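Reviewers of the previous submission asked for a worked example of the structure-prediction workflow described in the proposal, so we include one complete record here. The input consisted solely of the amino acid sequence. No template or homolog information was supplied to the procedure at any stage.
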Amino acid sequence: METLVDFALEERYKSIKQLGDRLEEFSTLIEWDCFRTVVGDIYQNRSEQGERPNMGIVLMVKMLVLQSMYNLSDPELERQANDRISFMKFLGFPEKIPDQTTVWYFRERLAKTGKDKVIWQDLQRQLDAKKLKIRKGTIQDATFITADPGHATVNTPRGDEAKTRRSKDGTWTKKGKKFYFGYKLHTKEDCDYGLIRALEVTTASTHDSQIDLSKEREVIYRDRGYFGTETEGFNATMQRGV
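From that input alone, the workflow returned the following structure tokens.
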């Protein structure tokens, strides 16, 4: 039955590919197996009862790549990975899609060991090796990655006084009339290929303008939320009426 399902998904994907699938193009540019070595050593106990990831390392890395490319929260990443055929194809049509909690713990472990930066540095190295240079400039943006606040209110103390593990790291912020708890993903995408070239994760309360991902002599496009702040590159931020 699984073979029939896989066949049906592959056939359905063919029509999507004809319309153009940048994920498929991006996937062929990267040697994904190298990340098994990069990430594998953070799991010291490899026994059946040990701390190995329940999902494949390459699968988990690809989940984080999808999250960064499409600015998705953990719940939305889980939903779309189970819903969009192009996402399933990029992930290799796995038997089981990692849930949002699995993604959160994997990203937390990468951050604590510094492996998240190693992964993105290696991605850029591989893209540079393919001579995919930035010519038209880059776009910087930020999105919220919501986390479980542990049923805490906005004024509940964080840090060591927090009652749950996950509530110790994130912070509250307000956008419009809505409150968010968790983190903020800052990304820089090139205008030529639509690929992520740099990223940084902060707590949700960090203002977008405090993060500059540009490089010297690089054109950086940003929305009005960044107005009034300087950049390392050429500032092409949208202007605000003053």
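The chain has two domains: 2-129, 138-235. We consider this example representative of the routine output the project will generate in years two and three.
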